[in-house]
Write a structure and sequence with these properties.
Number of strands: 18
Oligomer: single chain
CATH architecture of the largest domain: 3-Layer(aba) Sandwich
Strand content: 15-25%
Strand order of the largest sheet: 3-2-7-8-11-6-12
CATH class of the largest domain: Alpha Beta
Structural class: alpha/beta
Largest sheet: 7 strands, mixed
Number of helices: 16
Length: 456
């Protein structure tokens, strides 16, 4: 199914005006903070003029999944693109209060899979909705650390709250959308990664550049990242020790090895229902962007959270490269709880049901995280073994005769160091990739396909 264009008479591209914010609380869910405004750039709009009406959809995420159903995108990527879309729109306008301070819903989400499986489409679909929301700041794809800080410094937002404490709120919020992580960060740079780590936490960030004596101070920064990459690229990009650093623990890796194929010759779906659904999604997304204030946990959600933590936060990812990620699972889950809450409505409360939904989202991503390391680490020996098997299988299928050892050695010698050739062939026999027997006449070993692999 091909989703229709999001442009409509009621739609506005990002950056054409300011958005407004509505403050909500458990005690007064309908209180939209009369007189409060949000200022971005030079435009100031009064409350209630940009999608602050009643919700049209019971769940924004569920409706987003319905809208993107049938596209050639893995279902788990469609889900996390939707989650990221809400997190991007919320910015620093909503938060969960913990004993360590305010926790905002920004996410570093990395969609990981092989080329041509829909990562770019998932990110592009999210971007289409984000560009319908006024006042969001979307960064260029390729940046240095200095240029990223410049863009973040420009991404200012001021919320005016007459008669309230505080009377105004200022912050900087930037969105990074990158089809390929390598286009954003060409190689692992410690300064860049440390900067991303610092900004993720939301504390004050300062940068001093000696050349031109430039001093940048950002008191309340926020950064959201939705990027894609392949398993091999992420493994090549991240040095071995980097998995123990702060950036890796703050990154949610969402892996899929599936290719979701659509019927390219199928009938074009009725665009009217999709158009209506898109309009409803845009309307409600604007309403989500209008929310402001603390999102509180209901007693049943607090109890569910405590039970999960005291029970060991099961199931815990066990891969050694995820050890430091596991230390931040509580923070990731709280952010997702906030997203789940605002997805279903403006109550500004997290329920036990929201906790369950958010936990299922996180567990779904964590289940496949170890597969990133399996899929990404493909050694030269492994590739040579694949090619060697195909060489034997193709020749055997064509001639119905086994392959002489000298022919196989010659083939493998072009793909491996000379000292590894015999050892690799022996390993292929031992794991039953190949079957070997002796030619009585010539005294030479012969090889044919074994039972250890599927035929091509």
């Amino acid at each position: 199914m091909t989703a229709p264009s999001l442009s409509s008479p009621t739609s506005k591209p990002a950056g054409t005006g300011a958005t407004t914010a509505a403050e909500t609380s458990p005690e007064k869910a309908a209180n939209h903070a009369e007189g409060m405004r949000i200022l971005m750039g030079s435009n100031l709009m009064p409350l209630g003029t940009n999608g602050s009406g009643a919700r049209k959809l019971p769940s924004w995420i569920d409706s987003y999944l319905e809208y993107t159903d049938g596209q050639e995108i893995a279902p788990i990527w469609r889900l996390w693109a939707g989650i990221s879309t809400i997190a991007n729109v919320l910015g620093r306008k909503t938060w969960v209060r913990t004993s360590k301070g305010n926790l905002y819903p920004n996410l570093y989400t990395l969609l990981i899979g092989f080329a041509g499986t829909g990562k770019s489409l998932a990110i592009s679909q999210s971007e289409l909705f984000l560009r319908e929301i006024d006042g969001l700041h979307i960064a260029p794809t390729s940046m240095t650390m200095a240029s990223m800080v410049d863009r973040l410094a420009e991404a200012k937002c001021t919320i005016l709250r007459p008669g309230k404490v505080p009377p105004h709120v200022e912050y900087n919020s930037l969105i990074i959308l990158a089809d390929e992580l390598g286009a954003l960060i060409h190689q692992y740079d410690r300064e860049f990664m440390n900067g991303l780590t610092k900004i993720y936490d939301g504390g004050s960030y300062a940068q001093h550049r000696r050349g031109n004596e430039i001093r940048i101070q950002i008191d309340s920064p926020q950064l959201n990242i939705l990027a894609g990459t392949t398993p091999s690229n992420i493994m090549q990009f991240m040095p071995e020790g980097a998995w123990e650093q702060g950036f890796a623990s703050r990154m949610v890796m969402v892996y899929s090895g599936d290719r979701n194929l659509a019927d390219i010759f199928g009938e074009e779906p009725d665009s009217a229902p999709l158009r209506n659904l898109a309009d409803s999604l845009i309307h409600d997304l604007r309403g989500i962007g209008n929310l402001f204030g603390q999102v509180r946990l209901r007693p049943d959600a607090i109890e569910a959270f405590r039970e999960w933590r005291l029970g060991g936060e099961l199931p815990v990812p066990s891969h050694p490269k995820l050890t430091h990620y596991c230390a931040r699972r509580t923070a990731h889950l709280l952010k997702l709880c906030l997203v789940a809450s605002v997805s279903r409505g403006p109550s500004m409360e997290i329920s036990a049901e929201d906790f369950t939904v958010a936990k299922n989202w996180l567990m779904g991503a964590e289940t496949s995280m170890p597969d990133v390391f399996k899929a990404g680490i493909v050694s030269g020996d492994s590739k040579a073994m694949d090619e060697g098997y195909h060489f034997v299988w193709a020749n055997f299928a064509k001639t119905k005769r086994p392959i002489p050892e000298h022919a196989l050695v010659h083939f493998m010698r072009e793909r491996l160091p000379a000292h590894s050739v015999i050892h690799t062939i022996d390993l292929m026999v031992r794991d039953r990739t190949l079957k070997a027997h002796m030619d009585i006449t010539s005294g030479e070993k012969l090889y044919e396909p074994g039972i250890g692999r599927k035929n091509y």
